[in-house]
Write a structure and sequence with these properties.
By secondary structure, this protein is mainly alpha-helical. α1 (about 10-30) packs antiparallel against α4 and α2 packs across α4 (about 70-105). The chain has helices at about 10-30, 30-50, 55-65, 70-105, 115-120, 125-135, 155-170, 175-195, 205-220, 220-240, 270-300, 310-315, 330-350, 370-385, 390, 395-405, 420-430, 445-455, 470-485, 490-495, 500-510, 515-520, 525-540, and strands at about 140-145, 255, 410-415, 540-545. It has 23 helices and four strands. A four-stranded mixed β-sheet has the order 1-2-3-4.
Length: about 550
Amino acid sequence: MEIDDEPDRPMRDDIRLLGRVLGDTVREQQGEAAFALVERVRQSSIAFRRDDDVAARGELERILDGLAREQTMTVVRAFSYFSHLANLAEDVHNGRRRRQAEIVGEPAADGTLACALDRLAAAGVGRDALEDFFRNGLMAPVLTAHPTEVQRKSVRDLEMKLERLLHARDRLRLTPDERQAIDESLRRAVLALWQTRMLRLEKLGVLDEVANGISFFEHTFLPELPRLYGILEDELARRHPHTAVPELPSFLRVGSWIGGDRDGNPFVTADVLSRTLRMQSARAFEFYLDQLHALGAELSLTTLVTGTSPELLALAERSPDTSPHRTDEPYRRALTGIYARIAATARALDQHEPLRHAIAAAPPYERAAEFAADLQAIHESLVAHGSALIARGRLRRLRRAVAVFGFHLAAVDLRQNSEVHERVVAELFSVARPDVSYAQLDEAARVRALVEELATPRLLSSPFVEYSTETRDELEISATAPPTCSRSCCCCAKWGCSARSMRTARATSCRCSRRSPTCATRRARCRTCCRSRCTRACSPRVVGPRR
């Protein structure tokens, strides 16, 4: 639809540019006749749509009815890609308008953090209430998958390249040679798009869906969530300049159904769940390793000029980096040591081998919290020695990423039809407690039976019983989830159970290897935590390997 508003002229210019490049590509690749056919369809469609031209409608129907198979493919692909390119130009323009509004100082637009905070302030919501919200709130956008998802990553990547080129064309003052180079890159990307298969020929498998979902993290959650937290903290600091605003809790995290949604999908098996968690975890480690490598290049600070904290020096001394060229660069030595430990952790948890090898061997981290503590030591040393501005850069974003994504990337929701669970639990009761006819009980009686069972040290299932296929499948899922959960199960960590004891808790009633006062005095609660609370709280929502 044509829009005559002057502010939208740049968008129309971009659409014309991309349409012209696409048209030239069709002419060069398919021939003049194919280009003329697409133009006839386009002009007849415009006349019919804009002017309600009955004759144009008839002409359009005659053209389309007379197309051969190959001609139909050309027309469909041309108009499909034009729609993609027009939508892309509109997205770029929306960003352009937002930037222009910020440059001229217009009021914060709907949908921005600044606008939301303005409304809260106008409603009388104070700083204490905001901090309480962030401290206790939890928001978790959840990725879902559907077998009809057909857009290919190759197509998305090319469209994102086109978007970057449009941004560069719009925001930079270019020389004629630079403009020509960008325009050539645009034509090259559109040509690659035209020669790329638009649709998938085969239905995605579950692990294909997992890989497809993880690919979105590269350009969205991994870089943008840490940046979002930083923007929010800075906005709060600007609004409360005389009050120290602490770092916000990580109230916004990410979840996923992909690889855990068994409701109506028999292909989501225990093996698929295990591989899903490993794939997610490996992607988180890849991100951390890249960021640590870049951070090591940035933090070239020398003790000949600035000081360091004892904790930072200790971290540097533990590093396997013994290069004489970095003797006076403790931050770099600390980061090479951290890199080596993260590489070892990725190898231990996911059998994932980093592309850049560590400088030497190092012990893996037992928990993501240990990794976060090492980054915190670097942060505190920088802040204490006049380098707070440096700490606000890549290090700040990496620290937030670790707090949000841990070693698991995203929580995986295990979904199953309640009728399946009802049949499985009924079968388990029929073997372990024949006196309980679970399927015949009302809701209140079922709750009582389950609570009683959770309080007993005996397992409801037995490895020596031959269950139905359905029950075996569900038990395999349940057996896969708790070991993964145990690496960082918050409820078990709260009561002092070690990761090793959690892995054996189901068989040993949690003989905690840590004889801490908390665990020693809470033995009964610890058993309940490991056997029931963990299973109930974490199995339906598995926190994948986030030690």
